[in-house]
Amino acid sequence: MEQESRIEAAEAGLREIQEKLRQAERRDWWLWLAAILVILLLTLAVLSFSLPSLSVGEDSFFRFNLQQGARGLLGLILLFCIYTIYQQTLVKRLRVQTAEHVAAQSQLAIQAERARRLAMLDPLTGIYNRRFLEQYMETELARSQRQGYQLTVLMLDLNDFKRINDQHGHPAGDLVLQEFTNRLKKAIRSSDMLVRMGGDEFLVLLPECSPEHVGHLLARLTGQEAEFRGQKIPVTFAAGWTSYQPGDSPAQLLDRADQALYSDKLTGRAKDAVREVQLHAQQLQKMETVGQLAGGIAHDFNNLLTLVKGYSELMLDRLGESDPLRRYVEQIHQTAERAGSLTRQLLAFSRKRQLATEAIDLNVLIAEMETMLQRLIGEQISIVSIPEKELGQVEAHRGQIEQVILNLAVNARDSMPQGGKLTLETANVEPYELDRSRSIDAQPGPYVMLAVTDTGVGMDEKTLGRIFEPFFTTKEKDRGTGLGLATVYGVVKQSGGSIWVDSTPGRGTTFTIYWPRAEKKTAADGPGESDAAPAGAVDAAADTILLVEETESIRPLTREVLEESGYGDRRSSPTAHAGRSEKQGE
Predict the structure, then answer these.
(1) In a domain, 180, yes or no
(2) Residue 302 and residue 281: Cα distance in Å, rounded?
(3) Do 336 and 362 reside in the same domain of the chain?
(4) 389 and 503, same structural domain?
(5) What residues have CB less than 8 Å from 494, skipping those under 6 apart?
């Protein structure tokens, strides 16, 4: 972290100084070599005047003087080169000594920084100690206040740690501390910070985390055991947590966390939080199991209804309008239709009914449904819409989303028999804004939120635990099937979303739905369902149909319906071929 960056900066500075010294040395050598070369060229130019081509006589004295001058210049050049080499040797020696001195100072600084870092690490567990926390926490509090995110502090204290040391020895206590630390490292996020405060006490800084999320972290720490010399040592803990309030000093925040830890030892607050998370997870698992069961039953029941509806339609085609049996058959057909509606809701709850999806703007959809909703819930209930501008789109089936809104509106109407207010609110929710404690099964990513709030009678905890179960209803007898909210749950899950309910008796209820945000589509993205070409007319006389149906009881019905439509030979008897298929006549 900060210490590592300091060490890296010191090492980088040392490498930079050494490289600059080498560059300066190379530059000086080139300058000296250039000077020597220039002097040699000047000397050669002077010597050229003393060559034998000069005339003998009055110029002999001049030539002699030039020769003497040239020899003098050569001697000076030789002395200059010797002096240059000597100076460069001295300079190089000084530079080497300077580089060694700088390197020694840098190494001392690096070693001091490493020693300082080691002094802030716990030698047993390898995590930061209290000394580091004292320096870091003030910086983290300032960042939290500046950026506006929530910061939670969690204090943990191992139970019966003294007894473990007394009964099994200090090596067992050290093993428990190491095992608990490893479990904590796996439970927290990479952005969280883990500190050993001393002894058997730990602290976790949780940036961008609400206090409600702590229960999920604690649930991942429960049920731990350390094995020491063939014996299982249970590892339990007490926990206290609090959130940062603007203006808090590090000491005030730590004091509140200590008080919360002490309070947990008296009240068992941590166990209650873990139990609530586990109950929520069990409820989700139970809903999944019930959904699978409901889907299987609905599939088989739908096959039976197909027979009832099909044969009743065949009978209606053959019975005259004045036939006294017609009204009985019509009643059978209508009942089968209503039963089919129930099976469709069960299939939606079980998420087995896959439908074509499209990009939907919830603001537009709610605005289009507002008049219908007002007529549905009555004039005694007012509807308030709070749409967010630039709302993202949802990839879902339009009819299913409408069904969700209608079912929630009907549920709100039934909870406000004396009238009230129904609020529909939409919002974009970024990944860091998603409340993981409530949307435990939601995947990371941007979401679109729909919150439906009523001012009705509310629900108690017992009712909240069962509201999404099929056939569970709080309404009076014969007033509900118990599938409305179950269908809402199934549709939301089928669309990849998450749903949460807040309710207090006498204060109303809020259903909050998170749908994954979809990419906005334009007309250039391709044709929709409405662009498909209409199906052509069927010529029964010229077609051949291969009938394949796995349900044996439905095959004769389907054959008879096809024969009524002009396919096949009426005089031939139904024949079941291998593979449960039938091929009709030409």
Answers:
(1) yes
(2) 31
(3) no
(4) yes
(5) 348, 351, 353, 354, 400
Q: Which residues span the domain enclosing 38?
A: 2-119
Q: Which helix (H) or strand (E) holds 394?
A: strand 393-396
What does the DSSP assignment read for 490-559?
HHHHHTT-EEEEEEETTTEEEEEEEEEEEPPP-GGG---GGGSPPPPPP-TTT---EEE-S-TTHHHHHH
CA neighbours closer than 13 Å in the CB half-sphere of residue 450 = 27
In a domain, 14, yes or no: yes
How buried is residue 402: exposed, middle or buried, by Cβ count under 10 Å (0-12/13-18/19+)?
Answer: middle
pLDDT band, residue 524 (cuts 50/70/90): very low
Q: Determine whether 330 is exposed, middle or buried from the number of CB atoms within 10 Å of its CB (0-12, 13-18, 19+).
A: middle
Number of compact structural domains in the chain? 5
**333 and 458 together in one domain:** no
CA atoms within 13 Å, Cβ hemisphere of 359: 14
Range of lowest pLDDT (151-155, 202-206, 489-493): 489-493
Q: Tell whether 202 and 166 lie within a shared domain.
A: yes
Residue 533 lies in a domain: no
Same domain, 98 and 223: no
Find the DSSP H helices in 239-325. Answer: 250-267, 269-318
Least confident of 144-148, 341-345, 536-540: 536-540
On whether the pTM is more than 0.70, the answer is no
Q: Which two tokens stand for residue 42?
A: 């000047």
DSSP state of 489: H
Asked if residue 250 has pLDDT above 80, the reply is: yes
Tell me what percent of the residues of the chain surpass a pLDDT of 90: 11
